[in-house]
Amino acid sequence: MAFESLSEKLTAAFKRLRGKGRLSAGDVKEAMREVRMALLEADVSYKVVKDFTKKVTDRAVGTDVLEALNPAQMVIKIVNEELCAMMGGQNQRLNIGSKSPSVVMLVGLQGAGKTTNGAKLAGYMRKQGKRPLLVACDVYRPAAIKQLETVGAQLDIPVFQMGQTNPVDIAKAGVEYARKHGCDLVFLDTAGRLHIDEALMNELREIKAATEPAEVMLVVDAMTGQDAVNAAAAFDEALDVTGVLLSKLDGDARGGAALSIRAATGKPIKFMGVGEKLDAVEPFHPDRMANRILGMGDVLTLIEKAEQSFDEKKALEAAEKLRANRFTLSDYLDQMNQLKGMGDLESLAGMIPGMDAKALKGAKMDDKALAHQEAIILSMTQAERDNPSSLNSSRKKRIAAGSGTSVVEVNRLLKQFEMMQSMVKQLSGKNMKKLQRKMGRGGFPGIGGLF
Questions:
Q1: Which of the listed ranges 72-76, 200-204, 412-416 does the model predict with the highest average pLDDT?
Q2: Is the pTM of this model over 0.70?
Q3: Highest mean pLDDT among 14-18, 38-42, 158-162
Q4: Topology of the domain comprising 299-449
Q5: Where does 4-86 sit in CATH, by number?
Q6: CATH code 3.10.350.10 for 102-293
Q7: Of 182, 252, 186, 195, which is closest to residue 223 (Cα–Cα)?
Q8: Three-class DSSP labels, 70-106
């Protein structure tokens, strides 16, 4: 996941601060040197890093901080606030024009993920009550139109295309088609290049002039680092970009693009792509991302994912079983089916305050693995599901043979079940109280069945 290395380095720097009873200006400056190196290694631009560390240092060496009862926490609070400000302060919504249909023009370099992330964004907006239309304006990249039609069909979103003709004519006709067929939001999937050239920019300018989009959304690959910032500046100069969608934040990106784009261009990051699935797009919340980077979790996003994925009745039943210590492998399978819609366990653990996401590194849910788990559990007797500790080597061999799997897979399932129980134990104490305080008296809807 993006920011993992940065998060580790910042945590180490602040851990040394916490070990000191009182802080001096020298202690703060030494910590800021480590922060500066961590940010530069994360591919954040030098100017952004220099401005950031200066702001933090100026605030952190003040008397109010150095003489505070817990100055280390005050420094971390300042870093959190400045990280949030660097990324834009607060979430910015998609621009929706006053006239219908409202047009969103997707631009970016080839390979950034415009087609798939544009479709994901259309799917997200449909959940918000919109009636989107995808328009295939990329007539140069082989199979671009077919790709858009495929993802549109998977999301049940209509796609307008006119083959290999003039992209400007396609865009205008697409908007007119949306107007006649009751679509109130149009996503124009435009062409990209491997590099920025004048021909590309002229074509995009013509499309913009012909359709008057309410939003010019730049799709940027987070894994390209500083090149993403340079591309953003060039597209903004030519088209006056209104927002950024940062793709591939689930990869091994260093994260510098997310921390640099807003500061370098002044344009807000509005959405982020966080996986390959067609629902893996989320609004970008600078404050929540700052919390994740500093290892403070992201409770609000976790809650939102839970509310979308979990059956409340089943969750309450499972919660009762947990309280009574009667949570079985059958219950585990039911929860896994619901948890699958929220993403991998490692990313979820990273949203929980105080929980080490590395403890669940690699524990991902996918359809094939879930099918194997289901076969394994259904090959057990009821007594074995209720008491997995009774599974000796001979029983495991029988279950593996009955499910068409291996003993290794049986052991892997049991290990994941133990990890789930460990999560429950961790959340039963102070972490659960933190979550409940965030939510208020209602607790944690839906996901209560898991925790």
A1: 200-204
A2: no
A3: 158-162
A4: 434 Repressor (Amino-terminal Domain) (1.10.260)
A5: 1.20.120.140
A6: no
A7: 252
A8: CHHHHHHHHHHHHHHHHCCCCCCCCCCCCCCCEEEEE
